[in-house]
Amino acid sequence: MSQLNKWMLKSKISKLIIVITSKETGEPVERWQFDVGSSKTVDENADSTTEQANEKTDQDVQQEIQSIFRQITASVTFLPMLDGNCTFNVLVYADQDSEVPLEWGDSDAKDIQDAEKVQLRSFSTNNHKVDTLVSYRYERHQNVSCLARPLY
């Protein structure tokens, strides 16, 4: 994970994805995507007073991150239970000029076919803005009927 830290500090990452995969089938069952953008925009006309007023405190950033953690934790209410044994992969979309260690290799996007998608809250620091999306496979059972009986 030290490589991720290096890439983040140099703003070399545009996406960080965690894919949970079924060991039995090799198919991705959940995909957590974090789109990383730069919070800094270059404005030659902006003065340093305006920039300082827009700076977030560590406490502000921590509150935003805690909020996204709470939302991720609450996602168990809508995500389907993971059946069987699973593993996970970390995918990184890095800039073309990024130095890539040998232990990292190319991969496909590990997209989930016919996925349900839920956009989670965004958060930002003084350097980065992060948008979060979770995709998952939701098996709709074709043979299930909804039955009702009037209550008298």
From TrEMBL:
Domain (HORMA): residue spans on this chain: 1-134
Keyword terms, alphabetized: Cell cycle, Cell division, Mitosis, Nucleus
Chain intervals for the UniProt region annotation (Disordered): 32-60
Gene3D superfamilies cross-referenced by the UniProt entry: HORMA domain
Keyword ATP-binding: no
GO cellular component term of the entry, any: cytoplasm
GO biological processes: cell division; mitotic spindle assembly checkpoint signaling
Domain of life: Eukaryota
Subcellular localization: Nucleus
UniProt xrefs under Pfam families: HORMA (PF02301)
Family: Belongs to the MAD2 family.
Protein name stated in the entry: Mitotic spindle checkpoint component mad2
Organism annotation: Aureobasidium pullulans
